[in-house]
Amino acid sequence: MGESLREFEAGEPYIALHVRRGGDIDKTTTGGADDNQSVHRWVEEDYYLSLVSQIRDTPQLASLPIFVVSVDDLGDFSELASIDNLEFRVDGDRDSDLVFLAGAAVLATSPSSFSFTAALASRGVVIARYPWWHNVPEEGRWVRADEAGTLSPDRLSSALAHVGVS
Fold first, then answer.
1. How much is the pTM?
2. Calpha distance 145→2 (Å, rounded)
3. What is the DSSP letter of 151?
């Protein structure tokens, strides 16, 4: 799939937003090594709405297409689905979705090891929820978003400059 990744990276830049859904999680599901580090894996729609709003408010990103990548039913995301200029990739092939996420100029992860794996393979900017059971740096191309989906505009601009997005 390396050739596919190179094609996504060399093509028109885009933003990928991974929305975790599936039969294996619900509003009580946590992840982490122990109770002190458990983080709820279910993320409310407001989190994703906040990210989309902040991305659209960033001049370097305002015109880039945003793709929402997920599995199963997006019925929990009626507001997200009603936003103009979002494209949805739902129930795709796992490997193809991973490469698509990794090839994005900006990848907004969900609290999922699948997302994190795509982030590690990516050479673009990564926006990741913090705290998380995986280590989320706050330097270079990495940007932390808090549990409400708020991130630092200065940190995002710095990360974009780090990867050459202007």
1. 0.87
2. 29
3. B
Residues 58 and 50: beta-carbon distance below 8 Å:
no
Q: From 68, 52, 65, select the one nearest 11 (Cα to Cα).
A: 65
Q: CA-based Rg of the chain, rounded to a whole angstrom?
A: 15
Tell me the pLDDT tens digit for each residue of 116-161.
999 999 999 999 998 877 889 999 999 999 989 999 999 999 999 9
Question: How many CB atoms within 10 Å of residue 39?
Answer: 16
Tokens coding 92: 């795709």
Encode pLDDT of 107-127 as tens digits: 999 888 899 999 999 999 999
Cβ pair 49, 79 in contact under 8 A: yes
Q: Is the separation of the CB atoms in 143 and 125 below 8 Å?
A: yes
Beta bridge partners of 88: 68
Do residues 22 and 42 lie in contact, with contact meaning Cβ atoms separated by under 8 Å?
no
